[in-house]
Amino acid sequence: MTKNLNQLNAVLNLELNTFDVKIDPIIQIPNQYFVYQQRNISKENLSKAINQSIITLNRFVKNSATKTTGSPFIKYNLISNNVYNINVSIPIQDEIFITEHSDVLVGNTEAYSALKVILTGDLSHRQKAIKSANEYLIKNKIDFTIDSFYELK
To answer: Residue 4 phi/psi, 5° resolution?
Structure first.
């Protein structure tokens, strides 16, 4: 029994600690519409809240036959020591209109420049990906104002 638990522990440690961060050059993101859910959430509950929102948004676009144009993304804003305001979003092809009391909202972004950072592996390494992005910007002397960031899921 102990041998099996040790093997399981080794596999879990390998899975959780194996990750890679890839930085792509600056890309241009065009104007886009998206459906989203907005929440204030503690750091401890972040992953669960993100997953719940993605399930809700996927169900919404499927039930409303709304055409999506990309992967879900998340915008984070730190509002206090341990609380984030997050927008979990799915890009859509065309603007749609939603009833006033819906838990799903519609928004759009103007075109902007972005640094594409790809984290492969467990999301607990998110801070290492952010650090790599900052190092890339400094090394390449790219003036980039970061007041929030987006994460593709």
So the answer is: -65, -40
Contact of 92 with 35, CB cutoff 8 Å: yes
**Spatial separation of the C-alpha atoms in residues 42 and 48, rounded to whole Å:** 11
Rounded Cα distance, 38 and 85, in Å: 7
Mean pLDDT of all residues in 6-22: 71
At position 121, the amino acid (one-letter code) is: G
Q: List the one residue out of 127, 105, 6 whose CA is nearest residue 56.
A: 105
Q: What is the pLDDT of residues 54-74, one digit of tens each?
A: 999 999 999 999 999 988 988
Classify residue 30 by its DSSP letter: P
pLDDT tens-digit series, residues 80-108? 888 999 999 999 999 999 988 899 999 99
* C-alpha dihedral (43, 51, 93, 34), degrees to nearest 10: -30
114, two tokens = 């972005």
